[in-house]
Design a protein that fits this description.
The complex is a heterodimer of chains A (529) and B (337).
Chain A (H helix, E strand, L loop, with lengths): L3 H14 L11 E6 L15 H10 L4 E4 L2 E7 L2 E6 L5 E6 L13 H14 L5 H4 L8 H4 E5 L2 E5 L6 H8 L9 H6 L8 H4 L9 E7 L3 E6 L11 E6 L3 H10 L4 E2 L4 H8 L5 E16 L9 H10 L2 H8 L4 E3 L21 H10 L7 E7 L4 H13 L4 E7 L1 H9 L5 E6 L6 H9 L13 H4 L5 H10 L5 H18 L2 E14 L2 E2 L16 E2 L1
Parallel strand pairs in A: 1-10, 1-11, 14-15, 14-16
Antiparallel strand pairs in A: 2-3, 4-5, 5-7, 6-7, 8-9, 9-10, 11-17, 12-16, 12-17, 13-17, 18-19
Chain B lengths: L1 H31 L4 H6 L5 H10 L6 H13 L13 H36 L4 H15 L2 H15 L24 H7 L3 H38 L2 H8 L4 H29 L3 H6 L5 H10 L3 H29 L5
Helix pairs in contact in B: 1-14, 5-6, 5-9, 5-11, 5-14, 6-9, 7-9, 8-9, 9-11, 10-11, 11-14, 13-14
The chains are: A alpha+beta (529), B mainly alpha (337).
Amino acid sequence: MLTRRAVLASTAATPFLSYAAFADTPKDVLVMGKQIDDLISLDPAEVFEFSGSEIVDNCYERLIRPNPDKPTEVIGALAESWTVSEDGLTYTFKIKPGRKFASGNPVTAEDAAFSLQRAVKLNKSPAFIITQFGFTKENADARIRATDPATLVLTVAEKQAPSFLFYCLSATVGAVVDKAVTMSHAQGDDLGTGWLKSASAGSGVWVLRSWKPSESVVLEPNPNGPQAPKLKRVLIRHVPDPSAQFLQLKQGDIDIARNLSPDQIKAAVAAPDAFTLSAATRSYIMYLGMNTKNPNLAKPAVRQAIKWALDYDGIQKNIVPTTYKVHQSFVPEGFPGAIDDQPFRRDVAKAKALLAEAGLPDGFEITLDHAATQPTADIAQAIQANLADIGIKVKLISGEGRAVLTKIRARQHEMSISNWGSDYFDPHSNAETFNINTDNGENSRQRTSAWRVSWLDKDLSDRAIAAVKETDQAKRIAEYQSMQRDSQQRSPFAMMLQNIETAVMRKNVHGFVVAPLADTTSYVNTYKT
Amino acid sequence: MKGRWRSLAATLASVPITLFGLVLVTFLIGRVMPIDPVLAIVGDRAPMDVVERTRLELGLDKPLPVQFAIYVNNLLHGDLGRSVMTSNTVWADIARFFPATLELATLAILMAMLIGVPLGVLAAVRQGTRTDQAIRVICLAGHSVPIFVLALVSLLLFYATLGWAPGPGRQSVAYEDMVTPVTGLLSIDSLIAGDYGAFRDAVAHMLQPAGVLAYFSMAYIARMTRAFMLDALHGEYVTTARAKGLSPLRVIWRHAFGNISVRLVTVIALTYAGLLEGAVVTETVFSWPGLGQYLTVSLLNADMNAVLGATLVVGLTYLVFNLLADALYRLMDPRVR
């Protein structure tokens, strides 16, 4: 019988039953599903995480950037031209005329100077990229100057490779912010950072409309931007669970999924009618670190044995087929000076012989710290099995990522699976951390990755310090290549894998490309049909 | 009467002590955690001078009791500090994350109660029959299947396959940023704004995660109701009522249920409090920016101000509901009355 109650109940339920009818996203809005809970700020002087850098790079421009087609060169973004003085200490940049910020204010050398001074004075995480040229809170105003509205002059402390400075200026921290707008929001001496954390004041293609931590980021076109995007809005939604990301992608609630697992990527590849993919290597390198404080790991032959025992190809193919590639040197593929030599492959007999040569024919016991998350946990088990074959008994210690890092930073580990992402687009970023160690004491001021494994190789350390001062770009690149080959043989780092970032998008999304390392992932050419 | 007030006063007096204990324990756990809190703020790459400066700014160089005293002093002045992750004050964060949880938990407990209680009563009345067994199986599934499986299966079925429900998140893209927050409860705010479409969208987004949570809670409520009811149905007063020739419905709902309702209130109140703690797994699967997610992410980032603040809110919620249940108990139980 049809009662009044039944009618009411079914009427109330109807709109929910037909929900799918309006689930598709509007054509001029791009919706991206992504894990963005690592975002702590969107101020260019503070942002240092992948997801944050990508957003900031879409809202701001830098003076110069690497040439995506030829990464060993730089090209102008806001700068029209630049010169270096004879003594190599003074750099002069001419700003392109006619460029405007989102506010309508013209982009001047004064803004560029302010942005760099601001990064130095705020001294947040990425500030060292700029301060390593000798800029300090005290001298920033004198050494970073706008001599006229179109001319920016930087005076560095000592002569270094000009390309080194250029690449560092192309990092996110080198973004040019609108001085007038930023300072109008300044409180006390915060240089506007309290406001700029969740706002934008740039000249890029997009402006930041809102950021809700652990929820969403919304970008809208900059009316004064260098290029008009095809979309009216980009909505980046925090979707922490990869399975949920994939489901939403299938349903059309999101257009692009950025954090799918290897299995899900495989499933997407198998459905070419529904999805397209874009992939590029990232600067993330995964390696096995061996703390030379341990007497066994201090022996070069033992480290060689471990490098020969690992099954690089097997690990890549079985555990991370779509998300990592084998990479055995410290400069990531895609960077100037990278090499693709792979001197090591699994050779149990050779590894055993090396162990015997080191006086340890029966192996030894050792611990391996690693993050409990995937794929690291699976890789740790594979390493354990590989090393067991040559008699090394590995005890796995799994922990939360930051807890593992805390332990490694205190040099309390024996072996560890670590990740390193380059801080800026120059081989020095990695050459420094993996080679330079001038003080191996507990109170050292420079706690590089080399220091963290208690490794001091004076030759490589000195060469890394010298290479960054080499003004001949070709010679400089050659030196990094030679250092990588030496490091492969001598260092306590078994470089294993390099990360590949894959974005999976629906068939109707076009023009979205995960940028190679020399470029930034931009949403400007993206559109939907 | 006097004794009642005294016991209520004693319960109230225990609140600050409990909260103090909670803060102390959470604070200590935060400090013995093997994660360097400075690392969470400045990142792995920061130079030593930035690391050292931040350590000083956080007061981490001071002895533990001093650090605790400073925290408690700030707390008493209503200052929970700032979250590292979001750079907002912890108050502002809680004001944003808690309503999302509150909304979800309230709908979930309503659903759980409206289904669980009648199911429990039915199972007790039909004890040993197929109905009872069927209800037991339904409840067993709700209680024993891990909640992330329930959540994912629900998404797969109602969202991906049938298309009846919207996907993860609190609202659809079309309504993103359209409703001005007043209470933080999206359903209420959209009504205040008079936007019926946004309201419908918000409620539709809530139904699935709330349903998953409700299923889980319903299983518990139904089981408890059944046990209480069985107990009551075997009481002499029920036999008497039946002997008097009262209708079965009246015996069940008025006499038996009336007697167990007091105990049931406690069960429901505490279940509700449990839901308000935030359901980490459900919130993760449904991309629900609630307190559970906030607390977990903060903890993994060693963001101790956020962890302490959120824990306090959870503790306070629990205490308030305990007190409420206690008060209701006093109101409803004629013997205490």
